[in-house]
Specification:
Length: 445
């Protein structure tokens, strides 16, 4: 059963859905943790976000592992309703409703962050530093955490509204097939939602860079004008760049494909450049203490930069027509997310327990280097597979592609072992801290 193509597509659906969803959920916690230092956020809304997310995640898991939904995270219309017998209405509806609940959970969170930023700074434009950019107010703009949170709130309010629309339409079509929608419109809506939401993970995670590195170097990270302009550019570009996922769809309007290519070159660069350069400058000759948190934070800058390079190559139309449906794309995305965004999350985890955990041991640092080397190696197998035209999302490969698959599987097992060390350290440290707090509070009570 494990080796059947059906099972492969189910696991592919689970991986795409849960990995991005879990990373976004963790990154939203990082954003919320630091943003509340500057604005008044609602704790009940955050709890509601937590509950709705878990409920939606459970529903999608049931749809995949019990009712065998295998339509990928893209759930391209009309695939949920036309499965050729692979799954039924129950599985498709559970997946779509589960995704809808996850989207609503994030929508509530971003509505609350937007409300809090508007209340504190007057408008979302002020949160992005427009008065400083236009010269109406001298000096630095809002803290980088506020700027990044404003950008993420804006783009994800767009993303999640678009995603909810196509999910609802797909549900209606599932139970009332006579009500149809244009497949090209549906694909545009799905990829607009997916691209913006997935990219927002690193824009939330980078808040950890802005908050943690200054504490390690005793150097403030200021929102100077170029920094503010970069974040404003990325706010616009992130919303309109998604057509680079549709460059192979010849029925798309040509002007949209041109936008997809041109802005793919521009989208990641403004924030990436000012952040990577700022990280180098803030660390240079600072006497920084290199521990697990600072090491992961600095590694994330490398992963972000390295992951963008093959992404920009793939966004070039003549290259995209050859490479986009190969494993080149998982190569750049896993480097961008695994070495970039997820390293930010691990850095935050170790920062969170810093000073409260037992002494970081040899196993932690070894696991850090194992994670780094083997994750880069895993991404290398994807990129090399793309080079020899191994397709992505195929359950069966030709014999000449299999060696790359096997190498990647070995690297993945080692990565899981390293991550197990990180998670063990985090949860053990949290339990120890909680026990100490209970002991201290107990006698007073």
């Amino acid at each position: 059963i494990i080796n059947t193509p059906d099972t492969f597509y189910e696991m592919m659906t689970a991986h795409g859905t849960f990995m991005v969803g879990a990373a976004a959920f963790a990154a939203s916690a990082v954003m919320w943790y630091f943003l509340r230092q500057y604005v008044r956020l609602s704790f009940p809304i955050f709890v509601t976000h937590f509950v709705l997310f878990l409920t939606g995640a459970v529903m999608t898991a049931i749809s995949i592992f019990v009712f065998r939904f295998a339509g990928a995270w893209t759930f391209l219309y009309p695939l949920p309703a036309m499965s050729a017998g692979m799954w039924g209405k129950t599985g498709a509806s559970l997946y779509l409703i589960g995704m809808l609940l996850i989207g609503v959970s994030f929508l509530l969170l971003y509505l609350d962050t937007s409300r809090a930023i508007i209340r504190e700074y007057g408008s979302l434009g002020h949160g992005l530093g427009w008065p400083q950019i236009l010269g109406k107010v001298k000096g630095y703009g809002p803290p980088p955490t506020v700027v990044a949170s404003t950008m993420v709130s804006i783009v994800n309010l767009v993303s999640l509204t678009v995603g909810a629309s196509v999910l609802v339409m797909s549900l209606i079509n599932l139970f009332q097939p006579s009500i149809e929608m244009d497949p090209l419109l549906a694909k545009n809506l799905i990829y607009a939602f997916g691209h913006i939401f997935a990219n927002s993970v690193i824009y939330m995670g980078v808040i950890a860079v802005y908050e943690i590195l200054p504490k390690y170097t005793n150097r403030p990270w200021k929102s100077y004008k170029i920094f503010l302009i970069a974040w404003n550019m990325s706010t616009l570009f992130t919303i309109i760049v998604y057509p680079h996922h549709l460059l192979m769809d010849f029925v798309m309007p040509k002007w949209m494909l041109i936008i997809g290519q041109v802005f793919s070159y521009l989208n990641g660069l403004p924030v990436l450049v000012v952040t990577a350069f700022g990280a180098l400058m803030i660390v240079y000759r600072s006497g920084i203490e290199w521990d697990m948190a600072s090491s992961f934070i600095f590694l994330s800058m490398f992963g972000w930069v390295a992951g963008v390079i093959p992404a920009i190559a793939d966004a070039t139309i003549v290259i995209n027509h050859v490479m986009h449906n190969t494993k080149w794309v998982p190569g750049h995305f896993h480097m961008y997310m695994g070495v970039g965004a997820v390293s930010m999350l691990f850095g935050f985890m170790y920062y969170f327990i810093r000073g409260n955990e037992r002494k970081i041991g040899y196993a932690d640092m070894v696991s850090f280097w194992v994670y780094t080397v083997f994750f880069l190696s895993l991404c290398g197998t994807f990129l090399l597979s793309g080079k020899v035209s191994a397709p992505r999302r195929w359950a069966v490969h030709f014999p000449e592609w299999v060696p790359y698959d096997r190498m990647g599987a070995v690297f993945a097992v080692v990565i899981i072992a390293a991550v197990t060390v990180f998670l063990y350290r985090f949860f053990v440290s949290v339990i120890i801290v909680q026990a100490k707090q209970n002991i201290e509070v107990g006698p007073r009570a």
